[in-house]
Amino acid sequence: CSSDLYDSVTGKPLFVAPIGRSMDDFLAESNVHGWPSFRDEEVVWENTRVLKSSGETVSADGTHLGHNLPDAKGNRYCINLVSIAGNRLSSPPPPASASPTRRPPA
User: Fold this and answer.
1) CB-based contacts of 45: which residues, under 8 Å, 6+ apart?
2) How far apart are CA 12 and CA 30, in angstroms?
3) In 3D, which of 35, 1, 33 has the Cα closest to residue 17?
4) Where are the alpha helices (H) located in 22-96, listed in sequence order?
5) Coil, strand or helix: which one is 25?
6) For residues 92 and 49, what is the distance between their CA atoms, to the nearest angstrom?
7) What digits encode the pLDDT tens for the residues 51-86?
8) Highest mean pLDDT out of 7-11, 29-33, 55-59
9) Alpha helices of 1-106 — where are they, by DSSP H?
10) Three-state SS across the chain?
11) What's the whole-model pTM score?
12) CB contact at 8 A, 37 and 30
């Protein structure tokens, strides 16, 4: 049994877990570290990036997700829960140009 997790802003898939380990192992590792912890094979690389300079993990659209904190088993992507969603968005978010424009007070 695996779970798909999506970008909380765009709804694009970011992670599928667990892959190559049990759900119990995934949950145990996440509980030990205090963050959902994903491994390379669980990352949807089409929609996810890791910045080489800082290890920051972001969606391809720029949503901050967390950081890569490698350990003895390899890369470990510790992800902030507010950055991911368990359900895909029912409709795509409006384009940035559709957002109201804020103007400074006159």
Assistant:
1) none
2) 22
3) 1
4) 23-33
5) helix
6) 21
7) 999 999 999 999 999 999 999 999 999 999 888 988
8) 55-59
9) 23-33
10) CCEEEEECCCCCEEEEECCCCCHHHHHHHHHHHCCCEECHHHECCCCEEECCCCCEEEECCCCEEEEECCECCECCEEECHHHEECCCCCCCCCCHHHCCCCCCCC
11) 0.80
12) yes
The token pair that represents 58 in the structure block: 């972001």
Instruction: State yes or no: pLDDT of 89 exceeds 90.
Output: no
- Whose tokens are 């795509």? That residue is 92
Query: Which residue type occupies 84?
Result: I
5: tokens are 């997790």
- The values of phi and psi at residue 40, to 5°, are -50, -45
Instruction: Give the separation between CA 23 and CA 90, rounded to whole angstroms.
Output: 27
